Amino acid sequence: MRLLCFLAVVSWISAAPDFNYKFKEKPLQTNATIYIQKDGSLVYTPDVVDTKGLAYAVFQDGLLSSGWGVFDVKSGYSSSSQSDQDVMFAAGFLEGALTYKHIYNQYNNIKGTFLNGYSEDVIAKLKTFLNTQQAWMEKEVFLNKENALWRSAGLIFSQYSGLVQGYSYAAPKEMALDNFAFQLLNGAGDLIDLIHVVSRESRPDFSKMTKDELKAYVQKNGHCSALIKVLGAYENIFFSHSSWFVYQATNRIFKYYSFNIEELASKEISFSSYPGFLESLDDFYLMSNGLIMLQTTNNVFNYDLYDMVTPQSLPAWVRVRVANQKSNTAKEWGSWLSQYNSGTYNNQYMVLDLNKVVLNEAIYDDALYITEQIPGYVKFGDATEKLRLGYWPSYNVPFFEEVYNRSGYPAIVESKGLDFSYQLAPRAKIFRRDAAKVIDMDTMKHIMRYNDYKVDPYSEKNACDTICCRGDLLVNGTRPDGCYDTKVADLKMAADRTAWVINGPSTSSSLPPFTWSQFPNSTHAGLPDTYDFNFVLMKPLL
Q: May I ask which residue range the UniProt record assigns to the signal sequence (predicted)?
């Protein structure tokens, strides 16, 4: 079957990895190629990988066997004439077509996390904001074709357009999704804050919360633990990230994008992701120009900041992609991210420049840059000196004092205690105590899966006051959310675009594997029933 697809993109509406254990079942693999014709039309051909095509891709569906799918696409390497927009559109189309079943499940599994409990009026306001923002972005791309930022954003929108059209082509009518579904998927991180922008009624009164209630709120809205670890004589650098969110989001795909576009600072990016997402969300990125990006989410306790959020802005997921596409150094990255700050998905970003590292010799200035964002303000600076001391931890509390203060943390710490502070949050104490124990890949994996809440005095018997939270094991009010994955790499692996990854809540310290039978009323279409996976090695398929 072939599709003849005429392309006029302005609007974005319109070999296998190695595994270290035996498969439960053989992963399924599909592939396709898109050709560009002399008249500029595109032809989609399934079940073919042709390096002479405009774009070609492979999707290995290993969700139920290993915990991870793998999607690998190369676009723009044919000898035929093509525009940069063609290159990105074709890549998006292939992803939408090859992963459509998982996109459908992912949307239906997580939409309730953002929409349940809100009135039709609030949801209508949310859609209006997103549509207004999208229309504004499209207009700016059209009006600013010579501007580097807007050209880069336009490439992402072309890929988005391809994703939506590829999905629509492959999915049967009963699985049709509208544009809002793709706005929700790609803007999942932004929606954490955006719902409080469009609905003042959704903003909780922190002063009326108990300490445990506030912890539950923070753990549900906070995203992730991260650690960058340097060995004593600079023999190696390890970097890792463990995501925290609802377990319904555990439909995981590790993605490899390779785009032959001259203006991209990094033509190849590798990242942990999800069906229908053109970004990581976690974030965990390995880039071919030597940049590594990790991210954890900070909370906004000062809701007055949301008054600065407007739709005339770029959502975080777009700005992250732009920064990745345009930055040649860690130092540049924050300046790209800061432009047209949406004030949504307010995070701490860690960008490590491996070009500034010489193993066994030196870690040069500007090797590690930290960027933190809140509505109306972005701060970034060199944190290399702290990294040289051995490690950089990240655990959902702002590092920069100005961001910490503007976000409202001092008042929270005063009323609820030091567990919400930068220096004495439970994970800060655990990282400070245990980071020195990381000496190799196995010990790095261990610390990022660590959960010994029954014994560890810093956890105080709270299953979420630890590196890898188990919300389903909380004594007061279990819920299917928490830490549900880990990604780990080192200097050499990053150069090869490889990483060790694991899907599922931690089983550290003999904790039982999570199973959906404990939460039969939680939507989990297509997901594994029980998460008892091991670490698996991700590497490019093409």
A: 1-15
The Cα 434–Cα 67 span in angstroms is 28
Number of H helices, E strands in the chain: 15, 22
Which two structure tokens, joined as six digits, stand for 51?
Answer: 């390096």
Is the CB of residue 225 less than 8 Å from the CB of residue 428? no
SS3 532: coil
Quick one: 489 exposed, middle or buried, by C-beta within 10 A (0-12, 13-18, 19+)? buried
In terms of Cα–Cα distance, which of 178, 247, 147, 250 is closest to 469? 247
- DSSP symbols for 68-99: -EEEEEEES-SSS---HHHHHHHHHHHHHHHT
- Average pLDDT on 175-180 reads 98
Q: What is the pLDDT of residue 6?
A: 38
CA distances from 355 to 239, 328, 366, 389 (A): 15, 10, 10, 19
Structure confidence by residue, pLDDT tens digits, 151-166: 999 999 999 999 999 9
Write the DSSP symbol of residue 277.
Answer: -
Q: What average pLDDT does range 285-310 have in this prediction?
A: 97
Q: What is the CATH number of domain 25-189?
A: 1.10.439.20
Candidates 308, 305, 379, 299; CA nearest to 345 is 299
Query: Around Cβ 118, how many Cβ atoms within 10 Å?
Result: 17
Average pLDDT over residues 370-394: 98
Q: 312: how many CB neighbours lie within 10 A of its CB?
A: 12
> What six digits make up the tokens of 434?
């245990």
Q: What are the domain boundaries of the chain?
A: 25-189, 206-538
Average predicted confidence (pLDDT) for the chain: 94
Structure tokens at 139: 């207009």
Neighbouring C-alpha atoms within 13 Å toward the C-beta of 352: 30
Crossing angle of helices 120-143 and 148-170, rounded to 10°: 130
Higher pLDDT among residues 536 and 6, named by residue: 536
pLDDT value, residue 26: 53
Cis amide linkage into residue 283, ω under 30° from 0: yes
Out of 3.30.70.270, 3.20.20.140, 3.30.450.90, 3.60.60.20, select the CATH number for domain 206-538.
3.60.60.20
Select from 142, 261, 227 the least CA-distant residue to 443. Answer: 227
Reported as type and span, the H/E element at residue 326 is helix 316-326
Residue 351: HSE in the Cβ half-sphere, 13 Å Cα cutoff: 29
pLDDT at 221 (0 to 100): 76
CA neighbor of 330 nearest in space, from 259, 382, 392: 382
Side-chain-facing half-sphere of 156: CA atoms under 13 Å: 28
Between β-strands 69-75 and 253-259, what pairing exists: parallel, antiparallel or unpaired?
parallel
SS3 294: strand
Cα(269)–Cα(257) distance, integer angstroms: 5
187 to each of 149, 275, 527, how far by Cα in Å?
19, 13, 22
**Phi/psi zone of residue 438: left (φ > 0), alpha (ψ -120 to 50 degrees), beta?**
beta
